[in-house]
């Protein structure tokens, strides 16, 4: 291997510095043999194939920077000659790079997250040294690189029409970088090659061309940068010894853009384009710190396209202007956009790595076809820089786009709302519904798409369908779509071959006209059974066409699935089920069964066989499914078996009576219902719950509680529960634009999780055990589907439609993968497990003991371990915490010990505080957001798994009644609810009239929300000594914002004091007009309050209102209940989105003491605590 081969994937570059002193041994070092100092600039470049799940970065930049700092720290400001590790060695740049590499590698996370580390050591802008090696155990020896730079000026004229004005004689300045590669250092000297030697050789090589006419000095060849690189490379190669060098690479740069390079034995030629992109985005996860709030940044983006050959005229196979135009088009999709709202990212963190991959895919699709000699071997690299000390890159071999040339023509006129994709995916037990928002498809599909309509203006239809981002040039409105002439002319109109056009949708008349005009319509007309998203995927060969009406297709799918399931059932689990059932049944042995997600009664045969084996005389079987068509098909099957059918008095219920093969009486009830609604009814006696391919459709705690509610103490048999593994046999490793099976299945599993499927059945088993149940048996139930299996085409559709968006976004061709899978007749292997459980007898909390925060003394925070109640009350829920907010007002007084000791409760309206007094130790907090993990018998089952807000102290869990469901609100925003309600209460007490002037003292979280609540109803002036807070007040609706020194006296009709500073109360009294109102919203605790209540106050007729949120009092109390104010507070949060607008600090729950301290010292304005998996250490990537 001549050089370290380039790696496909991501890389991150961070920079550090070290000041060192050292000396060298050997005459070749000249004056450097004396002790001297130098400052090294050191870059660490970390590479890897994939990003960390959910976080979407290769490595946290702060971790990478910390590792580099840790590696450099032992050498910074040290004399390297005195360090034991360098004893007897010259501390050349090469030796120093190796030492830094070893220390940095030890400080980094282990593979596979990172696979390669390169250390770059610079001592000037003209020379640098690199050391690069793989991070995995047993990696090949590392590669050293020594680079030097030279320049020269020359005249030339280029030959070839594509060179335009450069065909005339003109001058040019060339920058030449020579890179020498090798794996062994000179043992005595400590370097790869004498850098002074190569600088001299490069100077001599460039001098031969300096101030010459290259038309003559290059021997008559076209004097392109490639020819320059060849000429200098030959001269350099003659001047250096072959050992210990492995290769020489030359980069010739024109106009500060890399233009050509030459490596030993092969050539690599590069063009570079640069662009910029201004974006806004926010991140999820405490590791992003302040960047969790919406913020803007400017990216500098470099695209490098390298090819191993040149065109026949000696120029580049790609024109630089082509790359620049394609980059501008790719960046235009994101420029001045909020990436959080871009459908292609689907709400994921838009880290630099993710954006680089997105720009790469768009750039690759936008590049024109390769010119002569360029096909094959091209590598496209995309780097994004948001600062001068960090850079992220993504590179991959350039592959042709999928199904190149197909142009999609979407007829807007024949698309009914029923044919649109659903935003939320149905939770059908059949698993057959896999829908994709058209907006996400349109963002990544590598095909030109046009919208066509006979209407003069089809923009409303575009918005409705999710195609609003389609540029006007791709919208053909007012078209004569029923005229064959229109379709015949269309190829000329849009500049495409008629054979490439594909009509999607269209009425019968339009489709007939298109066919007459030479345009094909490969897919059936759109309908509720064949929506636009499925049609688009079918046209580009990523899905099959529909198999009839949707309800019939669902039945056929379950019929195709039945034989595969029956062959997969675990015999060991069935034997264990028989053992467990026998002692439960007493003569005459009636077996009472509940079948959830019953479909077409695929489990009935299994239950009949089981009942006959244990000698049951009667089987009472209740089948529940939300799909009426499936149960209708099941009833028809029973009728064919000779069962007697009858309609029940209840709506949507059918009864059937028959017998098993051994003569057991079978009494069936087919009930069309949602299983969650069924759980809210009184439980009937049941011995066994069966649910095939069902357990992976619900959050584990919700499903555990559901089963316990439906059949307390019963057995639960859950076969064919997906275990998160899908693969093809034999596997394919991918080729060209075809992804590997492993990559496709990873995308498929990510898609299933995004759709709400749960891929880890062990989580469900643990939830049942935590609720008091037990696992009795489990066994593998593996589906093996050869191409001839009836279920095979369905499975292929699930995978190819579910992964198309992700694969396109990464530059792969999902249609080619699908075609190859069919051609190679690979079989699907799907791993499932059969689970047998004993359900708990009563509802128990899902969690174990939990940590709760405790204020123990002034400025002293601790934790106490608490135990959940043994059983939940009927109207109580268990909430496992996600986030809670620390109040910067009342709670901070409690933390500081500034409260007045009293026998008053902490808060008589909050369950967790009403029994606690104003004395240490105390639990405190009243803004907690979490997930309902267990529910009492009277709580609707739909609450399980939902996020809720509750007034509860800071703790990992809360046990509460009547929390508030979060429908649209993020946890971080929801934690502001008490602050928003307090702000509304203050605004109601202030009650300014239209045209009045209002002063708000204190632009903390309460003051800012008061300003937002009063926006539009009065002229509000914010008063705060901190300039940044005044700026926030103006953004939230204040008409003016002043410091206390700038305040006008006797100017406000209403003054609101919510700063917590007693001095502000005097300022409020002084600033309010006679007969005005002062609303005192602060609680000062033990702080001394000194007021000047002299003549002016005595004559002012001021009204002072003590405002407190716990109760609704005043004239408006007859109209405003607490419930109404609560709803208004949610509306205020929805309008303001405080977690995005206000300066929020987030810390993990164990770091609560640090959060209180930051608030106490005024370093933070608002602080929230994160719990569980989201409680990552607070780090900023900026």
TrEMBL record:
GO molecular function, one term: metal ion binding
Pathway it works in: Cofactor biosynthesis; tetrahydrobiopterin biosynthesis; tetrahydrobiopterin from 7,8-dihydroneopterin triphosphate: step 1/3
Domain of life where this protein originates: Eukaryota
SUPFAM superfamilies named in the record: GroES-like, NAD(P)-binding Rossmann-fold domains, S-adenosyl-L-methionine-dependent methyltransferases, Tetrahydrobiopterin biosynthesis enzymes-like
Protein family (similarity comment): Belongs to the zinc-containing alcohol dehydrogenase family.
GO annotation terms (biological process): tetrahydrobiopterin biosynthetic process
Pfam families xrefs: ADH_zinc_N (PF00107), PTPS (PF01242)
Cofactor entry: Zn(2+)
Protein's name according to its UniProt entry: 6-pyruvoyltetrahydropterin synthase
Keyword Heme belongs to the record: no
Enzyme Commission no: 4.2.3.12
Ranges where the Alcohol dehydrogenase-like C-terminal domain occurs: 1009-1110
Enzyme class (EC, first level): lyase
Keyword entries, A-Z: Metal-binding, Oxidoreductase, Tetrahydrobiopterin biosynthesis, Zinc
């Amino acid at each position: 291997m001549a050089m370290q081969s380039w790696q496909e994937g991501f890389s991150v570059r961070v920079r550090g510095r070290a000041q060192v002193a050292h000396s060298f041994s050997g005459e070749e070092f000249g004056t450097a043999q004396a002790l001297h100092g130098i400052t090294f600039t050191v870059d660490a470049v970390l590479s890897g194939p994939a990003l960390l799940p959910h976080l979407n970065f290769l490595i946290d930049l702060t971790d990478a920077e910390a590792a580099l700092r840790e590696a450099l720290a032992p050498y910074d400001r040290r004399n390297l000659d005195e360090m034991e590790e360098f004893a007897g060695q010259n501390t050349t740049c090469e030796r120093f790079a190796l030492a830094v590499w070893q220390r940095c590698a030890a400080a980094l996370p282990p593979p596979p997250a990172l696979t390669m580390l390169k250390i770059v050591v610079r001592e000037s802008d003209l020379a640098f040294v690199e050391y690069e090696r793989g991070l995995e155990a047993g990696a090949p020896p590392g590669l050293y690189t020594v680079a030097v730079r030279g320049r020269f000026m020359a005249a030339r004229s280029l030959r070839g029409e594509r060179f335009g004005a450069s065909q005339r004689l003109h001058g040019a300045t060339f920058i030449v970088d020579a890179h020498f590669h090798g794996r062994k250092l000179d043992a005595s000297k400590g370097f790869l090659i004498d850098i002074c030697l190569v600088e001299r050789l490069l100077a001599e090589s460039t001098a031969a061309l300096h101030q010459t006419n290259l038309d003559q000095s290059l021997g008559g060849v076209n004097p392109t940068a490639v020819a320059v690189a060849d000429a200098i490379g030959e001269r350099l190669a003659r001047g250096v010894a072959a050992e210990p060098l492995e290769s020489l690479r030359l980069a010739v740069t024109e106009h500060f853009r890399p233009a050509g390079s030459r490596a030993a034995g092969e050539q690599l030629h590069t063009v570079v384009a640069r662009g910029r992109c201004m974006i806004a985005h926010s991140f999820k996860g405490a590791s992003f710190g302040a960047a969790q709030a919406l913020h803007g940044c400017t990216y500098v983006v470099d695209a490098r396209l390298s090819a191993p050959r040149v065109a026949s005229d000696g120029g580049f196979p790609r024109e630089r202007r082509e790359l620049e135009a394609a980059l501008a088009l790719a960046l235009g999709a994101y420029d001045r956009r909020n990436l959080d709202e871009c459908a292609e990212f689907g709400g994921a963190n838009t880290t630099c790595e993710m954006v680089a991959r997105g720009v790469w895919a768009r750039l690759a699709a936008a590049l024109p076809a390769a010119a002569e000699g360029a096909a094959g071997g091209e590598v496209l690299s995309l780097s994004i820089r948001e600062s001068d000390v960090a850079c992220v890159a993504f590179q991959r071999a350039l592959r042709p786009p999928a199904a190149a040339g197909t142009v999609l023509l979407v007829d807007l006129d024949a698309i009914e709302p029923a044919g649109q994709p659903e935003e939320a995916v149905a939770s059908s037990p059949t698993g057959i519904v896999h829908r994709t928002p058209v907006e996400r498809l349109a963002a990544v599909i590598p095909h030109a798409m046009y919208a066509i309509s006979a209407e003069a203006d089809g923009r409303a239809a575009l918005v409705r369908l999710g195609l609003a981002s389609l540029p006007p040039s791709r919208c053909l409105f007012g078209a004569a779509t029923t005229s064959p002439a229109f379709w015949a002319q269309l190829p000329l109109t849009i500049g495409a071959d008629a054979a490439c056009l594909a009509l999607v949708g269209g009425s019968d008349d339009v489709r007939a006209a298109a066919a007459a005009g030479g345009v094909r319509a490969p897919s059936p007309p759109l309908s509720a059974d064949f929506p636009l998203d499925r049609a688009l995927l079918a046209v580009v060969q990523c899905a099959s066409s529909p198999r009839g009406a949707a309800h019939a297709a669902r039945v056929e799918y379950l019929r195709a699935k039945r034989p595969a399931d029956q062959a997969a059932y675990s015999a060991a689990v069935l034997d264990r089920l028989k053992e467990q059932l026998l002692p439960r049944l007493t003569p005459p042995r009636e077996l009472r069964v509940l079948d959830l997600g019953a479909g077409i009664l695929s489990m009935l045969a299994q239950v009949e066989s089981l009942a006959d084996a244990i000698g049951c005389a009667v089987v009472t079987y209740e089948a529940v499914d939300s799909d009426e068509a499936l149960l209708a098909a099941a009833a028809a099957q029973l009728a064919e078996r000779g069962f007697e059918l009858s309609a029940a008095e209840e709506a949507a219920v059918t009864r059937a009576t028959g017998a098993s093969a051994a003569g057991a009486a079978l009494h069936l009830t087919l009930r069309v219902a949602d299983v969650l609604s069924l759980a809210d009814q009184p439980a009937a006696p049941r011995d066994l719950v069966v649910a095939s391919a069902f357990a992976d459709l619900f959050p584990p705690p919700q499903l555990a509680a559901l089963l316990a509610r439906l059949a307390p103490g019963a057995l639960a048999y859950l076969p064919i529960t997906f275990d998160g593994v899908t693969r093809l046999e034999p596997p394919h490793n991918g080729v060209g634009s075809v992804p590997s099976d492993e990559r496709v299945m990873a995308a498929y599993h990510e898609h299933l999780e995004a759709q709400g499927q749960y891929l880890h059945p062990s989580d469900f088993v643990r939830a049942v055990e935590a609720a008091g149940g037990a696992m009795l048996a489990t066994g593998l139930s593996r589906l093996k589907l050869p191409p001839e299996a009836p279920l095979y085409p369905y499975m292929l559709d699930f995978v190819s439609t579910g992964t198309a968006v992700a694969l396109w976004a990464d530059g792969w061709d999902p249609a080619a993968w699908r075609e190859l899978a069919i051609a190679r007749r690979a079989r699907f292997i799907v791993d499932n497990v059969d689970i047998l459980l004993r359900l708990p007898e009563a509802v128990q909390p899902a969690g174990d003991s939990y940590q709760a925060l405790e204020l123990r003394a002034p400025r002293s925070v601790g934790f106490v371990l608490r135990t959940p109640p043994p059983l939940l009350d009927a109207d109580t829920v268990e909430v496992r915490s996600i986030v809670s907010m620390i109040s910067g007002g009342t709670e901070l007084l409690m933390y500081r010990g500034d409260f007045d000791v009293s026998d008053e409760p902490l808060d008589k309206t909050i369950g967790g505080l009403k029994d606690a007094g104003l004395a240490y130790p105390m639990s405190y907090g009243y803004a907690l957001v979490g997930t309902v993990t267990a529910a009492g018998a009277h709580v609707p089952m739909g609450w399980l798994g939902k996020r809720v807000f509750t007034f509860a102290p800071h703790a990992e869990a809360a046990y509460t009644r009547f929390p508030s469901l979060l429908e649209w609100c993020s946890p971080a925003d929801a934690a502001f609810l008490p602050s928003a309600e307090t702000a509304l209460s203050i605004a109601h007490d202030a009650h300014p009239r239209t045209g009045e002037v209002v002063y708000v003292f204190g632009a903390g979280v309460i003051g800012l929300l008061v300003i937002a609540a009063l926006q539009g109803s009065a002229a509000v002036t914010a008063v705060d000594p901190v300039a940044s807070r005044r700026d926030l007040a103006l953004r939230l609706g204040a008409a003016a914002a002043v410091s206390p020194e700038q305040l006008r006296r006797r100017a406000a009709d209403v003054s609101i004091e919510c700063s917590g500073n007693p001095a502000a109360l005097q300022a409020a009294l002084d600033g309010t007009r006679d007969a005005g109102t002062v609303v005192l919203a602060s609680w000062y605790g033990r702080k001394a309050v000194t007021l000047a209540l002299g003549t002016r106050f005595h004559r002012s007729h001021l009204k002072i209102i003590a405002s407190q949120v716990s109760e609704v009092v005043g004239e408006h109390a007859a109209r405003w209940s607490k419930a109404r104010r609560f709803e208004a507070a949610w509306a205020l949060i929805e309008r303001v989105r405080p977690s995005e607008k206000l300066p929020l600090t987030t810390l993990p729950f164990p770091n609560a003491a640090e959060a209180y301290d930051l608030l106490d010292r005024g370093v933070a304005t608002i602080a929230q605590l994160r719990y569980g998996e989201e409680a990552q250490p607070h780090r900023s990537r900026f």
